[in-house]
Design a protein that fits this description.
Elements: H1 10-25, H2 27-35, H3 40-45, H4 47-62, E1 79-85, E2 91-97, H5 99-107, E3 114-117, H6 137-148, E4 155-159, H7 166-179, E5 184-188, H8 189-198, H9 203-215, E6 218-222, H10 231-247, E7 251-256, H11 260-266, H12 275-289, E8 290-294
Parallel strand pairs: 3-5, 4-7, 4-8, 5-6, 6-7
Antiparallel strand pairs: 1-2
Helix pairs in contact: 1-4, 9-10, 10-12, 11-12
Length: 311
């Protein structure tokens, strides 16, 4: 039989024997070999792989979260090395999501149901049913109304001054729908209009965007009334979307700094004939699709200790 140490220096031989002895005494290694019916010869032949696996296991066990992952620089953040044995007894190294990454993937699984997502970076973490009871009553009432609308045929037109938390609450609602496996478009309306204008020459871009907004299960138009409105944005963009959603009875939500009676003025243009007719047609769609809910209160942005977000 070939001597496995014949080409090694005395120092390397000593290290190898020390490594094997440490593996023989390790409970995880003993358990792994026992479960897969492997003997000492297998341990000796695969000592480097087993040692590397053991170090990975110990490192991951001591980890406190993905932000501190020791393997991030190696491009395998959140991945743990595992050893698998096939039916013939062959061992293979595989990468599996660690416990923290599994938790993250489970937490973020609903994001696959967002066709368009303009929420803030942490918007997908907002949990509407867990709004703190210490919040102002108006804020709690708005959250309860939004949750109650989940089972209604129409959405909500949530309005109030800037910074009262409208976008935050609607982010939480969007998450609830996505977790229920509904397709969702959460759209910052001013941003959408700006992007459309930047892509005026791309008819396919416009076509696909309008199709998504018209056909998703739940549409949330955030900050409507703050966009740079024109007859084109009103009649060629917003009206067709809302008209189709009304006809298809699709759930639609809005947030705005303007009450409905003031929103109409945003879509009136003095230089345009029949401007009032077009604006009234649009308002009719909004009123049919949603019920107005006032979120009163001061801006949460000016209070650094606010509990439930802003916007």
């Amino acid at each position: 039989m070939k001597n496995p140490y014949e080409n090694l220096s005395p120092e390397a031989v000593a290290y190898r024997k020390q490594q094997i002895e440490a593996l023989r005494k390790n409970k995880k290694i003993v358990s792994l070999l026992s479960q897969n019916k492997k003997n000492l010869k297998f341990l000796e032949d695969h000592s480097s792989i087993l040692t590397d696996w053991l170090k990975n296991q110990e490192t991951c066990y001591e980890c406190v979260g993905l932000s501190n992952c020791a393997y991030a620089k190696k491009g395998i953040a959140g991945m743990s090395k595992e050893l698998e044995f096939d039916e013939d007894g062959y061992m293979t190294e595989v990468l599996r999501p660690c416990r923290y990454r599994q938790e993250q993937e489970k937490r973020d699984a609903h994001l696959r149901n967002f066709w368009i997502n303009h929420m803030d970076a942490n918007g997908h973490l907002v949990n509407l049913p867990e709004i703190s009871p210490a919040e102002p009553q108006a804020y709690i009432n708005a959250a309860v109304t939004l949750l109650g609308s989940f089972d209604m045929k129409f959405g909500v037109y949530l309005y109030g001054q800037a910074g009262t938390g409208k976008s935050y609450l609607l982010s939480g609602l969007a998450n609830e729908y996505a977790k229920a496996d509904q397709s969702v478009c959460f759209v910052r309306f001013p941003r959408m209009i700006s992007e459309l204008k930047q892509n005026l020459a791309d008819e396919q871009y416009k076509k696909e965007l309008l199709w998504d907004l018209s056909h998703c299960d739940v549409l949330i138009l955030d900050d409507i009334g703050s966009e740079a409105a024109t007859p084109w944005t009103r009649d060629e963009i917003l009206f067709p979307i809302l008209d189709e959603r009304m006809n298809q009875k699709k759930k639609t939500y809005f947030s705005s700094n303007l009450a409905l009676e003031n929103l109409i003025n945003h879509y009136l243009f003095k230089y345009e004939n029949d401007s009032e007719v077009a604006a009234l047609r649009l308002m009719d769609r909004i009123k049919t699709l949603s019920m107005p809910v006032l979120l009163a209160g001061e801006s949460r942005r000016i209070h650094p200790t606010n509990l439930g977000g802003v916007k």
